[in-house]
Each structure stands twice: as C-alpha cells, then as structure tokens.
Design goal:
heterotrimer, A alpha+beta, B alpha/beta, C mainly alpha, B: alpha/beta, two-stranded antiparallel sheet, C: mainly alpha, Helicase, Ruva Protein, domain 3, 6 helices, 66% helix, 0% strand
C-alpha cells in the first residue's frame, strides 16, 4: 500500500512538473502572466509532493519493508537506524529520488523570492528547473523505481511496480544491507553534500538560460544568483573534502584521493565553479567578460550532468560507479538536449554579450583573475582528457588503458602551484591598474619573511624541490594576506581613532566578500600543507609479525600486543588487534586496528588504528586478506606527515564561506540613501 | 610621506565595497560609450559556429558510442566470432606452446571456456568439463579450448593437474581473447561456437552437469549430420 | 677405496652446500619491496584498484608473482613489462607512450599553451582598445594637485 502511495506521489509530481513547463512557455508566449503564475504554483507544489514521496521511502526503509526491492537491496535488520535513514541515497533508485527532492526544494526556494524586477526571467527559470525535475522523475518512474516490489511468479522472482500475471507478493525476512564500506557516519553527510552542491548549480544555470532567452544580458542574473553560486560551491567543496576524509578513514590505503574517474567527475564542476566565482567579480566591477561568464556557468552545469551520467550509466569503470543500468540512454538524451540548447543559446546571444570596458593593465586584478581562470581551465582540461581518454582508446584501438594518478599529479601540480602564487598576489593587486612597482612595493616585506621557509627547510634537511617551492608559496600566501589585513585595519583604526579589533571587525563586516575570500585562500593553502605532506613525505611499511613482534617505520616502532575476535550487535564478526606505538623509543599510545566481517553481505571492512597529531598521523591497518591470529598478523603502517592540516584547512574554509556569504542587512545600500525604496528590497538578494 | 594608498582597502565613504550599491546596472550602460563602440557584427561567423557544432555533436556521438559499447559489451547468439589465436601452455612436445587459430578449427564445434585458478565457481564445473571432453574427443569434430584468464602460470598448472584436464589450455595473454567475447568478462564463462564460426550459446557462470554441456553441443552435431 | 669414497662424499656435500648457499644468497623480497612495485600497477580484474591494496585472492597471487620475479633478480621495469604483456596494458598506471597513447600526454600542454596564447591576444587587444578610448576622452585632471582628489580618483578607479 505504502509503495503504491509513494509511486503515485511521484507520478503526480511528474504530471505537475510537465504542466508547469507547458504553462510557463505558453504564458510567456501569450504574455499572459496568469499562466506563468499558475506554472509557478505548480512548481511550488512539487516540493511537498516529493517530500511526501521521499518520506514514504524513508518510512519503508526504517520499518523493514523488505518486499520493496530497494529496501531489500540497501538495508538489513542489523543496520542501526541512522544508516537506514542514509540508505535513502545508498542505491541508484533512492538517490535519484533524493536528487528530485533537492531539485524541487531549490526550485521552490527560488520561486518564493520577490520577482517584481525580474518578471521576464520567471517563466524560463521555471521551465529549466521543471524540465530537469521531469527528467529525474522519469528516471525513477520508468527505469529505477524505488517502490518496485518483489513478486514470486511462475518463472521465479521478479521486481516490478504492479503485480505481474499470477504472482504473489514476496516478503523476504531480511535485506542484503548496505555495502560495508558505506556503513560509516560519512554516509550521513558526504553524498547529501555532493548532491546539494550539484543540484544547487541549476539555479544560476536556469537564470543564465533565462537571461540568454530574454536578452537581458546585463549582470542582473549574476547578482540574483550570487549567493546561490556561493552556497552551491560551498556544498560541493565540502562534499569533496568529506569524501576524502571518509576514504581516509575506511578504505585502508592511507590516502584520501585516488584520481578515480568518478572522483574527477565531481571535481570538474568544482573547477569551473571556482573559476566562475572569481570571474563574476570582474563582471560586477568592470562589466567585462560577460561572454566568458555565461560560458563558465553553462560549462559548470553541463559538467554536473555529464559527471552524473558518467557515474550512473556504466560507461566508465570505477569502484564508485553505480551498477550499470538502463538509465544510460535516457541520461544521454538529456545531456544531448542540455548541451545543444545551452550552446545554441550562447551562440545566439554571443555578440550582445560583448563586454564594454576593457582592460588597462596586465597586472591589474582583472588580469590576475583571468590568469586564475586560465589555470583552472588548464586543470579542467587535464582532468577531462584523462577521464575520456580510456574511452577514446577503446573506441579507436579496442584496447583498454588506465589513466592513473601519475598522469594527473604530474600535470596538475605545476598548475596548482601557479594558483598558489596567484593567491599570494591577489590581495595586492587593484582593480584597473597595477604595475610591477606597485605590486613589488606591496609584496617585498612579506616576501622577505617568506624566504625564511626555504632556508629553514633546506637547513632541516629537506631536499625535495616540490616541497620547498610548495611550502614557500604557502608561507607567502599566508604572510601576504595577513599583512594586508594588518595594514587595512591599522589604517582604519588610526584614521578613525578606533580600537584595533573594532576596526578589524568592522572591516570584515563591510567587506565580507573580500575578507571571506582571504580566509578561504588561507584555508586552501593550509589544505595544501596537508597535501604536500602526504604526497611528498608519506612512507609505509608492511610486515607479518607474531604477537610481541614489532615493525619499524621512520622514527616509529609498533608492537603487536594482542588480538581478540568476537561477534557484535551489528551482525558482524570483529577481529581487533591491540598495537602499541613508540616514537623515538618512548611509548605514545595504544591503537586498535580491526577487521569487521559482516555476515549479511559477506564482506569485510578494515578500520585503521589511528594516532593523530597536527604534525603527522600514524595509520595502522590489519591486512585483512591474510590470516590474523596471535601466531602472526600482517600489519600495514603508514606515516602521514601533516595530513591533519587538510581537515583543519577545511574547517577554516567553512568559516571563510560563512564570512563571505553572510547576508548583509542592507545589500543594495539603497535604504541609507533612499528610504522610499527600502520596502521593496527586503528580500535576501 | 603618507603611506602609499593604492593597495589599502580604504574604508569607503558610503556603504561597502561590494559594488552593489555603487551604480549597479548603469556601469555597463553609460550612454556615451555606446556610440564609441563599433557597430556590432552580425552574430558569430558561420565558420566558427559550424566548427563549434561539429565539436559538440562529435563529442555527443563519441559518448553515445561509448554508451552503446557499454550496453552491448558481450558477443551475442548468432554473431560471427572474430578470429583469435590461443597460445597453449608449453609442454614436452611444444616448448614454446602451440598456436591455435580459431579459423583452423572451422568445420568443428568449438567450446571456449574461460577460467582461472583463483576462481572458486570454476572448480565446480572443471570435472564436468573434463568428463564432457572425454565423451566428445573420440569423434574428432568437437574441440574444447580452455582460456586461462589473468592468472599466474604455476597456480594454473596445478589447477589443471588437480582436475586432470586433458583438453587444450592456454593463457589469455594481454586479455586479448576475453575482450573479444565480453568486455566485462567474469569467470567462469563458456562460449559454444558452431562449425561455421557462429556463436550459438553463452554460459555465464558454471555448468551444473555434464548433461547440460551435452545439451548445447549435441544439437549442433545432429544438425550437421 | 674407502678413502676415495669418503673424499668424494665429502666433496659432494661441500659442493651441495656451496651451491645451496649461492642460491640462498638472494634474500626473499619483503612485503615492502613487493608493494613498491605493486603500488604502480592496477588490479587486472577489479575496477581502478591499485595492486597493493586489492584484497582478492587473485591479487594475492599476482603479488606473489612479483615476489617470485624479484627473487629471481628481475628489475622493476622488467616486472612491469611482463605484467603489461601478460595482463594487458590496462594494468599500468599510465598508458605506455606509443601510438595513439601519445595523445594523452600531448593534448593537455598543447591546449594550455593555446589558452595562454588566446588570453595574451585578448588582453593585448583590450589594452589597445582602452588606450584609444582614453585618448578620445577629455584630459584627466592633473595628478598631484590635491591629495584628496587623488585618493578619490584611486577609489573610483578601484571600484570601476
């Protein structure tokens, strides 16, 4: 019964969304705003409907309705409640419904804003969001139905929505359960963050398309969607970092990023999204680069859809990919439609987007932002080419090849290094005009201090060139940014005779975007510290030792104290070793690496024993495919220097975004100058 | 001498430096500047447009073909099996192994079985396959080819010895042979090819009995008589 | 006769001992030696999993094969070439630089250089456009007359 209700809700939403598209187009064609208003209401209706449908699915997941195929495939009685909730996005069908829910949420939020100034955008924003919703719902209704049930027929067991001829409902007593690798708190937050990021990008895209269709080629669409872009970018960034943290915690190869095609598919929209965030500032300040910005947002959204297609269609082989399914062709059609329409519209309006005020200096902030864009596009091309090359190779030579980490690391390292150098220069450059002299005058003091870094490193015995350059750039960025903060605050506090900290606070408050951006830059280079530590200085060792034996790695020694095996409540068998860590001969800590074996899915999972400090991590895992007993157990030990700066940097990143995106009380600044306008600009803009 | 000010965020006189409040849409549309711009060209040049569409459509075509290939990754019944050469494990008579071409076996029924020493299900059908081979061998018009899929030679040899396998076996070097049959091959898989080189039957997973194997080979022999 | 037998037996034993010592001089490669090579290879059957972390029995066999080859004195390159020949070039972390695969390595730098060129051209033409516009505009106020005016000019320039 519940499954029927859920399915029915999806169908109603599907029909409503189709109506919304048709009504919006018709209303715009006839210039009859009543139809557009009707379309807007239909789009608003989709949110409660999808919420109910998703709610029904969550209910089924939590109450063990194993006759529903999706519930059977992703839950089991032994899973704790929070994991059953996260199972909503644990499989293809559920995650597609979750995607539709997010889409209707964001579309509704956007439709609730005040549209007085932008009425011509409304129909097209509705059309774009509703068509996308129609597409994703059609995937769940016709192909990957989360409400399909198990029926026992004469030919065996079949999963379908409606009972096949002469069949009866099957009621399995238990489910298969989630893949053990997914049974982790990371499951709570990593997929939703990623999906939030992906789906949120449709709003700026919809406005961009609306701007192209209506010919409103000024930057109104950017101003409206600026906060959306920032939040979308925030969620996507966090989703990527959380994925890295989860991999580090659970996958047992002591790393956080494998340059797997699906990881790259999520990274690509982030790259163009970051470039877009920067270059829209140029358009807002100088009215330039309209064509380029339009292209960037279209590229970002197209990459989101393309990445989703790659992950779910089975075209790429990857540990992350969903199992191959029939949605491939549908997705391909949607991609085709999206690419063709967006490129067509862009070409149609290309000339009208021509920019008005050109550049004056090669070192101005605009020029540096453009260089930033070029570098991000460079990384994008490396990633894109690396992902599709195996397909090209198979098509033209029939041979499968792997494009792996060495390729990506070698190609992107210099580009990221250049980006760090840009982050150091960015606070110093000015809009419109900068020369080598002005930049030089501003950078020499922090630059001199930053030179202490390579000197210190060389004196400390570090000889790796990448590390020396990398850490020097990190120091430069931090010093320059802090120096600029210091100078600005000092100037203000002197001039206005304010307390230093009051000045600092006010500066932050009045220049949220700029200072939030600086904090984000600092957070990025802190993450770079972690990355450099791992990539350049990570060491590992593996060995089989008996109880009482020990392994050495760098200045660490680990001894195998004892091992125990027992069953636990989560329907799994745990083998837990006790290992002592000694650093420079002194006892530091005991850790407990374990191997869990899940009975229901018959799969193992290793959990490392981890000792973390800001300086390094010692990461110890039980090599689970060897026998584990007091006679001998195989351990793999990773020494990961500086890795925790990665996660610390991510925390500071969140702080930076909050500063940059915090809504301002008087966004247009018009209330102060014209009280009469105050009432019409109260909405979050 | 006052400090150089060009790079200081001088506290703005009114509001923030976000730019929102200072002349929003008017920045781009200053009337005087419109006239100083040259007359806009009529759209993007057709050549460039054409080039862009070629790239976009070409890319879509390429992805589409990738998708098609992913969907249809396995050889189907009725398809002509492409030519391949199996180099057998070396033995006393053939120190370099023997090269067996599929085309040389025309006129005979060929059973191609993919297996590996690390594959547990393969072991369940190994005895049945050998028994079936001994049944058909005297006739001379049926050939069994065992293809060892991504395996290590010592373990493969001990697998063959364990089940006393007497039909021809060889490693699938570079996975070239398996890629012809199924791009996502798993072991065990068996492909039965008729006397004209057409694929007649695909078995994913192990056979359950000798009778099952015979049920797919006998019709081909009967039809030929 | 007896002396002859004892001497030959002694010589035989000595020969056998020397022979076995010579054979045993190659130490068994450690897990770390194996992993150093396995890390650069991918599992031939699993998806995108490096060979040193792959948990399947097949991967364990392949790692043992690496250990065997190392014990026989093979170099890293020889082992990688052998794996590529036996299991397909898919097991290598990067496509070998031959034939069509050259495109992997060439296209990104070429595209990047093309990007630099386009950017440079665009910047230059914009700068020229701006210079000609400046020439058309009225003469700017004399700099240095009034420091407050200068500051306002700077502010305006910054804000666009």
């Amino acid at each position: 019964m519940w499954a029927d209700i859920g399915f029915g809700l999806m169908v109603i939403t599907f029909v409503t969304a189709i109506f919304s598209v048709v009504a919006a187009v018709y209303g715009d064609y006839r210039k009859d705003f009543r139809w557009v208003e009707s379309a807007r209401r239909a789009m608003l209706l989709s949110f409660p409907l999808t919420s109910l449908a998703a709610g029904v699915l969550v209910f089924l997941l939590v109450t063990n309705h194993y006759e529903v195929q999706y519930v059977y495939s992703v839950t089991s009685r032994s899973m704790p409640l929070y994991l059953k909730l996260t199972a909503l996005w644990g499989g293809q069908a559920g995650s597609l419904l979750f995607w539709s829910w997010l889409l209707s949420l964001f579309s509704s939020m956007v439709t609730l804003r005040k549209w007085d100034r932008d009425r011509e955008f409304l129909p097209w924003v509705i059309v774009v969001s509703s068509i996308t919703l129609v597409f994703f719902l059609s995937l769940t209704i016709f192909f990957e139905n989360p409400f399909a049930r198990w029926w026992s027929t004469l030919n065996g067991e079949v999963a379908a929505m409606f009972p096949p001829a002469s069949s009866s409902l099957l009621m399995p007593s238990d489910g298969q359960g989630l893949n053990p690798l997914l049974r982790h708190p990371g499951m709570l937050i990593h997929p939703p963050m990623l999906y939030l990021g992906f789906v949120a990008f449709i709003i700026p895209f919809a406005f961009a398309v609306a701007a192209l269709i209506t010919g409103r080629t000024d930057d109104r669409w950017i101003r409206i969607t600026r906060r959306w872009t920032l939040w979308a970018w925030l969620f996507l960034s966090l989703g990527l970092v959380l994925g890295g943290r989860w991999a580090y915690d659970v996958l047992g190869w002591g790393g956080y990023w494998a340059w797997d095609p699906v990881e790259i598919a999520a990274l690509m929209p982030w790259l163009t999204g970051t470039a877009f965030l920067h270059s829209v500032m140029i358009q807002e300040k100088r009215g330039m680069l309209k064509q380029w910005n339009m292209l960037l947002i279209i590229l970002t959204y197209d990459l989101v859809i393309f990445g989703t297609f790659l992950t779910r269609s089975g075209v790429l082989s990857s540990v992350h990919a969903f199992a191959q399914s029939a949605i491939g062709p549908m997705f391909f059609t949607f991609i085709g439609l999206t690419f063709v329409v967006s490129v067509g519209l862009l070409l149609h309006r290309w000339v009208e987007l021509r920019s008005k005020s050109p550049m004056t200096s090669m070192l101005s902030r605009e020029a540096l932002f453009l260089l930033n864009n070029l570098l991000f596009m460079g990384v994008l091309i490396v990633c894109f080419w690396g992902v599709i090359f195996p397909l090209i190779s198979e098509l033209f030579t029939g041979q499968k090849v792997t494009v792996g980490p060495p390729f990506y690391e070698r190609a992107t390292a210099p580009l990221f290094g250049a980006l760090m150098a840009l982050m150091a220069l960015a606070p110093l450059s000015a809009w419109g005009h900068s020369t080598i002299k002005t930049l030089g005058r501003a950078v020499w003091k922090p630059g001199l201090v930053a030179l202490l870094t390579p000197i210190g490193l060389l004196w400390g015995g570090v000889r790796n060139v990448v590390a020396i350059i990398g850490f020097t750039l990190v120091a430069l960025v931090i010093l320059v940014t802090l120096y600029e903060l210091w100078r600005g605050t000092l100037a203000r506090s002197r001039k206005l005779n304010e307390n230093f900290f009051v000045s600092l606070w006010t500066l932050f408050g009045r220049n949220r975007r700029r200072y939030g951006g600086y904090i984000i830059h600092i957070s990025m280079v802190l993450m770079a510290v972690g990355i450099l530590g791992m990539e350049v200085f990570q060491t590992q060792t593996q060995g089989t030792i008996p109880q009482g034996g020990s392994l050495t790695l760098d200045n660490y020694k680990i001894t195998f104290d004892s091992v125990a095996q027992f069953d636990t409540a989560g329907n799994r068998n745990v083998t837990r070793a006790v290992v002592s860590i000694y650093q420079d001969g002194k006892f530091v800590q005991q850790v407990y690496p374990r191997r869990d074996y899940f009975y229901d899915s018959q799969q193992p999972m290793t959990i490392p024993g981890l000792r973390s400090t800001m300086l390094d991590d010692l990461y110890i895992i039980l090599v689970d495919w060897q026998s584990i007993s007091s006679v001998g157990a195989t351990f793999k030990v990773y020494h990961n220097p500086l890795v925790n700066w990665l996660w610390t940097g991510a925390g500071i990143f969140i702080l930076g975004i909050l500063v940059a995106a915090w809504p301002e009380k008087d966004p247009d600044g018009l209330r102060a100058s014209n009280p009469a306008l105050a009432h019409s600009h109260g909405s979050a803009d | 001498m006052p400090e150089p000010i060009e790079n200081q965020p001088v506290p703005p006189v009114n509001g923030t430096d976000e730019g929102e409040h200072s002349l929003p849409e008017q920045v781009a549309e200053v009337p005087g500047q419109e006239q100083s711009n040259p007359a806009p060209r009529r759209g993007v040049s057709p050549l460039v447009q054409g080039l862009i569409w070629v790239v976009v459509l070409g890319f879509l075509l390429f992805i589409g073909s990738g998708l098609l290939r992913a969907q249809k990754s396995i050889l189907g019944k009725g398809d002509k099996v492409p030519e391949f050469t199996l180099t057998t494990f070396s033995d006393s008579q053939h120190p370099q192994g023997q090269d067996i071409k599929l085309s040389d076996l025309k006129g005979k029924v060929v059973l191609v079985n993919f297996w590996a020493s690390w594959c547990k299900p393969c072991e369940s059908e190994a005895a049945d396959l050998e028994a079936a081979w001994r049944y058909y061998q005297p006739r001379g018009d049926v050939v069994f080819l065992g293809v060892d899929y991504v395996d290590t030679e010592p373990e493969a040899r001990s697998y063959l010895a364990k089940f006393d396998i007497t039909y021809t076996n060889g490693p699938d070097l570079g996975t070239r042979i398996s890629q012809l049959f199924n791009r996502n091959l798993g072991v065990p898989e068996t492909y039965i090819i008729d006397q004209q080189g057409i694929l007649t039957y695909v078995q994913i997973g192990p056979f359950v009995s000798v009778a099952e194997i015979q049920s797919h080979i006998d019709p081909l022999l009967a039809g030929n008589n | 006769m007896k002396r002859f037998l004892w001497t030959s037996l002694f010589a035989l034993l000595l020969g056998a001992a020397w022979f076995s010592i010579a054979r045993a001089q190659q130490p068994t490669p450690s897990d770390d030696d194996v992993n150093a090579i396995a890390r650069q290879l991918f599992c031939p059957v699993c998806e995108n999993t490096p060979l040193d972390v792959c948990p399947t029995q097949a991967c364990a066999q392949w790692r043992d094969e690496i250990r065997l080859r190392l014990a026989q004195g093979w170099t890293e390159q020889q082992i990688k070439d052998y794996f590529a020949k036996t299991y397909g070039i898919r097991v290598l972390a990067e496509p070998p630089r031959q034939g069509l695969n050259w495109l992997v390595y060439i296209i990104p730098p070429v595209a990047f250089i093309a990007g630099i060129y386009i950017l440079f051209r665009a910047l230059r033409s914009w700068r020229e456009l701006s210079r000609s516009e400046k020439a058309q505009a009225t003469a700017p106020p004399q700099a240095g007359d009034d420091p407050y005016l200068d500051r306002i000019e700077e502010e305006l320039k910054k804000r666009g």
